[in-house]
Amino acid sequence: MNTRNAIQSSDQDTVLSIGWSHSRRRFAVGLSEGCRVFRADNCLTTHHPRLATDEKAIADGGVGVASVFDDRYLAFAKGGRTPQGSPHIFVFWDATLGKQISVFDLHEPIVSIKLGSAFAAIVLKERTILLQYQQLIPLDGTISERQPTGGNEISKTIVVVPAQSTGQIQIIPFPSGSKRVFRAHNTALRALALSDDSSLIATASIQGTLVRVFDTMTLDQIAEFRRGVDSSIVYSLAISRGNRWVACTSDKGTLHVFDLRPSSQAPVEPQRPLPHRKSVSQGQAPSNASVARSSPPGSVQYQGSIQEYYGLLPAPSIATPASHTAATSALNAFKHSAFAPRALKDIRSVASGPFYIGNESQHWQGGAAYSWTTGPDGTRRRVRNPVPPLANDPSGRPPKGVLAFAAEEMDDNDGALMYVIGGGNDARWERFRLVRGNAGSNGWMLVNEGFRRYLTRQFAD
């Protein structure tokens, strides 16, 4: 009699992939058995289709990649430990009819799927294919860099994918136009994000220390932010609807929010010219500008120049009294000196906070971590089993920190609302809000408003 405990219960689903809709009102997850679609604002299930085409099939099989357009259409490719289908086949599903309406065998493993308003982008390991919804025929094939993570973005007018050269990005306009290529990083790309109006691109490399933002029209770099000093795996990037906030998640378990319009760019009041130094007549008190101030011992008193005497130039900073503490002034002076390291000069996030990444085991997809075999000498040996790879992650790590800003209309000056989705065995949906506060030096703070385990029972009996 077999009395051993199961390594993983058969009714426990694991999340293999997470994909946001173009409107960010829905997200789809590929499971070890089938796929599901959820609302973004409250994480309630909107669609849980039965994917098995054979009525005698007991299970739907694993879904390695899933993407959703709205409440009716979704696309997926099989995957996982028990796919019951080929990971090369792209399936377009109609939720209203409850069946697949188009199937394409691409003869290569599908890494990622993005559904836009008029086109679908299917990312393979070495190329990206665009499909048009009305006819669902291959529209174009673009050779790109080998993409183990499936980084790409799609909008109404352009598709952004990594180029053939390391660290480069290519922007492909459609339905017509010539593509443009530019270098974003010196190392391979890890994550991409495209703004809603297709004007900005946020990028991060496999180094994971810097986040850069580029203009899609001029290809100029308009901002660079430092996530941290240590290398990390950037999970996701996102840009707010008003193009002010850029958010980033990484394997450090921290959500960072950067400001593309910092307060330092606000209009500065013009400096008033210094008053003219009038001569002192008899019987009159000297003016404040002509009063001599005593200097501490060992210091040199600033005498001023002829231009400053007549009010043509403002006094230099050394002549004005310090408004901060000595330690703060020394730190600021060191930051602007030529000897300061770059990490100290870079712009940091205006707010940050932890998100849940869990403590997933190495074999979170199920199966034994070790197996026994017989060596050449006849002795039994324990061998570590390999971790099954995912469609967009050859290392087999569970998807975590998949980020998106809320679709609701919101003034960026009032803050932002963000959702962070995690997969694996302990799949969670979290909601964060950026509000004004005194927690940070920039006047913004990040508040975790709650979470939900979206694979568990959502309503009580």
From TrEMBL:
A family per Pfam: PROPPIN
Stretches with biased composition (Polar residues): 280-299
This protein's name: Anaphase-promoting complex subunit 4 WD40 domain-containing protein
Bilayer topology term: Peripheral membrane protein
Record keywords: Repeat, WD repeat
Taxonomic superkingdom: Eukaryota
An example Gene Ontology CC term for this record: vacuolar membrane
UniProt key word Isomerase: no
SMART domains according to UniProt: WD40
KW rRNA-binding (keyword) present: no
InterPro entries referenced in this protein's UniProt entry, alphabetically: PROPPIN, WD40/YVTN_repeat-like_dom_sf, WD40_repeat_dom_sf, WD40_rpt
Family, per entry: Belongs to the WD repeat PROPPIN family.
